[in-house]
Amino acid sequence: MQKAWIWTLPSLMATTWLAFTSPLQALPFTDPIAIPFEPALDGSSYIPEGASPSNRALGESVRAIVNDDGRIPVTSRRYPWSAIGRVDWVNAQGRTTGSCTGTLIGVDLVLTNAHCVIDPDSDRPTTQTIVFRPNLIRGRSDQQAEVIDIAYGDSPYTGASADDWAVLRLDQPLGQEYGYLGWRTLDLEDQDVLDQMTGNISIVGYAGDFPTEAMVVFGEPGETAGLSERCSILLVVPEGDFANTLIHDCDTNPGASGGPILAQFEDGEYYLVGLHSGSVSLLESITLPTGEQTDILNRGVQVSRWSGQAAQWRQGRSHLQ
Hints:
Blueprint lengths: L1 H4 L8 E3 L2 E2 L20 E3 L28 E2 L10 E7 L5 E11 L2 E4 L5 E2 L4 E2 L3 E6 L10 E8 L13 E5 L4 H4 L3 E3 L6 H7 L3 E5 L20 E6 L1 E4 L9 E3 L11 E5 L5 E18 L5 E9 L1 H13 L6
Parallel strand pairs: 13-19
Antiparallel strand pairs: 1-19, 2-6, 3-13, 4-15, 5-6, 5-10, 6-7, 7-12, 8-9, 10-11, 11-12, 14-15, 14-18, 16-17, 17-20, 18-19, 19-20
């Protein structure tokens, strides 16, 4: 199936998922399936002392009509959900003008997309204040931190889509309290690896259309994250505008940019195996491994593109030193 449509991807339109708002406007959760192999551990996780991890993103029962939306509201305050939050642009008047999703990957480090921090007009990091609000639920987070330094791969507006990543340093060590996720670098060009991961990845994102009207109990759109689970990484694009980006079939929408692509392995822990970044429109409808038909898919950044910077900053200056 892949060979029938993979070569159409380089000529397709990209959509970047930074949700700008004026003003800012998320089923019961099933247990994940642990991926039955253990690739090399490139970045370790940290679960706060005394914390009790949970596989379930829901911290309560769902009492809303979900319609056909496959996303689940993330209402758990437990790890690993605690390490995922919203990245906001805040102007001089204190108003939030744009938002993305970010994940703690170090004691004071957050992973997101480059397009979530770069001003499209100047092609440089925004001059607005960037803040990170961990574990935002119903628009409320117990803390927030300001971004004081940014490293990024490439501008999504003038550079390569494969390097649409950014690592943010915070002015507070939020990872001590909320924990942070590690990562595993997978060979996504190996069909055996893709087969092992089929139906076993998840994405969390603060999309601007979630919670839906049917789920207003979980807040206004963008105030509670949505979880898309049991989806798949389908392939890595070999050439063209999206060369070296990964393609996945999880549910996302604007605002979910920078969301973690997660998998649970046999050690019981979740690790980052990618970074969501946008979408691609197909020239014709194709059939997914689930049997569903679609003419649009989503794309992301491979771990290998940003793991070096993340490891370097972890080993450097931090609030623990």
